[in-house]
Amino acid sequence: MTGFDRKDMDRDAWTDAVHRLEPLRAPEGFADRVMARVSREEDRPPAPQRAAAPRRRTGGAGWLPRTNGLWWGWAAAAAGILAVAFWLPSRLQDDGSTLATAGTAARWQPEQAHLVVRPSDPELGAADGARVFEEVVGQHSGQIERRDGLVLGLVPHEELVPFIRSLAERGRFEVSRGPVRVQSPDAWPGALRIRFEGD
Amino acid sequence: MRRSLATALDAPPELGTQPRRPPVAEVKPVVAESDADGRAAEDMDEVAQLGRIAKGDAQAMRHLVQRYQDRIYGFCCRMLGESSEAEDLAQEVFLTVYRFAGSFRGDARVSTWIYRIAKNQALNRIKYLDRRGRGQRTALHALREEPVDETHAPDRIHADRQLRARVHEALEELEPDFRAVVVLRDLEGLTYEEIEEITGLPKGTVKSRIHRGRSQLASRMQRWVKDE
User: Fold this and answer.
1) What are the tens digits of pLDDT across the range B69-120?
2) Is A191 helix (H, G, I), strand (E, B) or coil?
3) A12-71 tens-digit pLDDT
4) What whole-number distance in Å separates Cα of residue A187 and Cα of residue A181?
């Protein structure tokens, strides 16, 4: 048994122990060592100027908030995940190709069409039908590519309904689904691939 | 310990040997008033001293270090439980005081301000050391830290050393936030108001942390006594 006995324990062991402790004293030469470090501080800008400056709330880059480097790592990772989560779907078309590759009519194949347009007016020949189709596509900010006797058009997704309405106003056309299903603009805000079939 | 003053005031006067001391209730305000006056003058001196430090007065800085070195070193030692780390931390605290002396707004006492710096830096250092995988220390290092009254008998010296080691050991097991308030109250003898200013916590929280900290410490020390 050291320092205190069981009788002490019945009252308050901690308080009794504390009362027996003496205050700690700084080691010999402590003040000298502090003052040596203070004198080395003299090379830094003087204290009054530093004190007068507005409270520093930024890190080394100036505009960055001062924080732990680990937090920056997490923030960068989260931003990357969010960017990929929001950006990639918008760049992917339903067949997995990106808008960059399907951005021009020359890059997509007829079997990748979302819509197929055929003239249903017997008086409207294939050539005239293609010409009307081409005009209507151009009218709705689309692109046209003629390739191997085919007329392929790209129309912005949001122009789908106006495009069909304009087509109906210009003549009798049959619009049917193509091999690839049209998705909602939210899921895929890219361009619609439309194939014209004259015959 | 500062508590011994209260104990002395509460002690009954010896009849016939001394003039009857006025009741404690009558003495306390007079003492408190003179204390308050002295403290206010001391505070003003210290604020002026900080002003001189802000202008680069090394002598003023030395006086401040000499005035507070034992308290700040003691606090750091109790918080970190290691004398070399404690000295380094205490030096850092005084360097911070030197750097930011000009930004002292005067809305707290200088001593409270210095303790606040020490408390924040101690908690940061504990986190840093924990991240660096500071190993489990034995209480042996604590035996070397505190002064020992060599006039006592050897068994008493040994008992005192063991007691101090156990106190350090018990403190180190406490969560740093609890440890800080217990050390400030029980070992540094600060008032609840001063601890409120230092920690920025409401009085109720300070009291509850001290109470919970003391309970944990008491139970650890009781457990130790039972194991002996």
Assistant:
1) 999 999 998 898 888 888 999 999 999 999 888 888 777 889 999 999 999 9
2) strand
3) 667 777 777 777 888 889 999 999 988 887 766 555 544 445 555 544 455 555 566 778
4) 12
Considering only the beta carbons, identify the residue of B69, B87, B163 that sits closest to A2.
B163
Q: How large is the angle between the packed helices A30-41 and B58-80, nearest 10 degrees?
A: 120
DSSP state of A65: B
Phi (first) and psi of residue A196, to 5 degrees: -100, 130
Of B77, B94, B214, the CB nearest to A24: B77
Q: Which two tokens stand for residue B120?
A: 């924040």
The answer to whether A51 contacts B187, with C-beta atoms less than 8 Å apart, is: no
Q: What angle do CA A73, B133, B169 make, to 5 degrees?
A: 135
Cα–Cα distances (Å) from A2 to A113, A156, B155, B164, B225, in that order, read 91, 88, 9, 10, 9
Residue B87 corresponds to which tokens in the numbers above? 């000295």
**Residues of A (46-105) whose Cβ lies below 8 Å from B:** 46-48, 50-52, 55
Chains A, B: CB pairs < 8 Å: 141
Cβ(B180)–Cβ(B117) below 8 Å: no
With an 8 Å Cβ cutoff, is A24 touching chain B? yes
A2 near B CB under 8 A: yes
Burial of A18 (0-12, 13-18, 19+ CB in 10 A): buried
Angle in degrees, 0-180, between the axes of helices B3-10 and B24-54, rounded to the nearest 10: 160
Please provide the distance, in angstroms rounded to a whole number, between the alpha carbons at the two ends of chain A.
108
What residues have CB less than 8 Å from B159, skipping those under 6 apart?
A: A2, A3
**A121 with A171: CB under 8 angstroms?**
yes
| Helix/strand/coil percent split, chain B, to 5 | 75, 0, 25
Residue B80: closest CA among B160, B146, B134, B143: B134
- B89 CB contacts (<8 Å, ≥6 apart)? B76, B79, B80, B118, B121, B122, B125
- In this complex, is the C-beta atom of B69 within 8 Å of any C-beta atom belonging to chain A? yes
Both structure tokens of B145: 């830290």
- Integer Cα distance of B15 and B20 in angstroms: 7
Residue B206's identity, in one-letter code, is V
Closest-CA residue of chain B to A6: B225
